[in-house]
Write a structure and sequence with these properties.
InterPro entries: DnaJ_domain, J_dom_sf. By secondary structure, the chain is mainly α. It has twelve helices and no strands. Helix 6 packs antiparallel against helix 8 and helix 6 packs antiparallel against helix 12.
Amino acid sequence: MPDLYELLDLPEDADTDAIEERLREQERTWAHLARDSDPAVRGRAGQVLADLVQARETLLDPERRAAYDNRRAENPVPAPPPVAPPPVMSYPTGQFTAVPSYYPHPAAMAPMPRRRPAAAGAVLALSGALLITIATFMPWDPRLSGTGNYWDQVSSQDSFGADSLPGMPLVAISLVLVTLLWALYFASSTPNQGLVWALVGIAGSLLLLPIAFGSLGTMGGNDPYLDYYGVEQGTRPGPIFAVIGVLLVFTGNFTAIAQNASRTGS
């Protein structure tokens, strides 16, 4: 059994409170090392913890401590031999001239886990793009023939707001661009890359502005003649969903910028 006072690094006349405090510190430290992945470290920790149990039972009991102090005085523990200095080795000029005296624990040398970029902004932007796609097939103007959806609205230049709506090529390009950018964003491995894709996504989302302005124009496209006779012309969920979708895309981009900007360098 090692010297209990040396184990705790305390003088022989240390009071009970100091011993109790040092025992708690040592027990916490070695209990953590007892869960180390290195078997040698776990073995050493188990031995020290057993010695700490012996120290607690001996030094915190007045009678046992007195008996231990008497035995210790009769049989003093020999001083450990001096530690030899590390050997000095010769190296070519420009390299180290001595062996490093400290090697960190393998856990300290392990690479830190890579932090994925925040995904809330990407989810919002992709949800907005999906909403715009759905809105193109919903009613935009019940006065028109067919379903009165987005494509009917674009093909009819007589309806209010139709001339300000982009045709199929711009819609297809903008949706594909937004979806592609955010798919690449999901594939980015660091917040820095996520921030770059979010900034690029803002620029690509500008293609959706004509959809938003044209949708706002079609919301007031009721036929005044039918209004005069009180004919119900129906709701127009298409432009409403399109405007909400555009807002979601922009909100998602700005959210991603804020999230990744706060996480860069962490």
